[in-house]
Amino acid sequence: MVAIKPEPKPVVSSFKERLIKTLPLLADPGSSVHEAYGIVKPYHFHSRNMYLPATLLIDKQGVLRWLYIGKKNSDRPSLDSIVEQLKILNAE
């Protein structure tokens, strides 16, 4: 699992140092992942484009297999629900 933030690398590095120690965190300043998978349109907040949190399961061929889009910035799926989706996808 990897986290992707649609922000420049220095911002992502600072965020990782403060909050996320064990999860790989990648910078996507051009929001190309959001755009590539057509996730959501950004909303404007404090002079910046922001995105609702999204959790994606993408297979080795780059096909989006499961997507969860939060209703607000703190809305994320539980680890149990992600594991359940992985089990379903592995069974297919």
In short:
By secondary structure, the protein is an alpha+beta fold.
Task: Give a description of the structure.
The protein has one domain (3-91): Glutaredoxin. Helix content is 30%, strand content 25%. It has 3 helices and 6 strands, in the order βαβαββββα. It has helices at 9-18, 32-36, 79-91; strands at residues 3-5, 25-27, 43-45, 48-50, 54-58, 64-69. A two-stranded parallel ribbon has the order 1-2. A two-stranded antiparallel sheet has the order 3-4. A hairpin with a 5-residue loop joins β5 and β6. The longest helix has 13 residues, at 79-91. It is globular.
Count of runs of 4 or more consecutive helical residues: 3
| C-alpha-based Rg, rounded | 14 Å
Q: Total number of β-strand segments? A: 6
**Element order, helices and strands?**
EHEHEEEEH
Determine the N-to-C terminus distance. 20 Å
Largest sheet: 2 strands, parallel
Helical amount:
25-40%
The CATH superfamily is identified as: Glutaredoxin
**How many domains?**
1
Mean of residue pLDDT?
A: 77
Task: Tell me the structural class.
Answer: alpha+beta
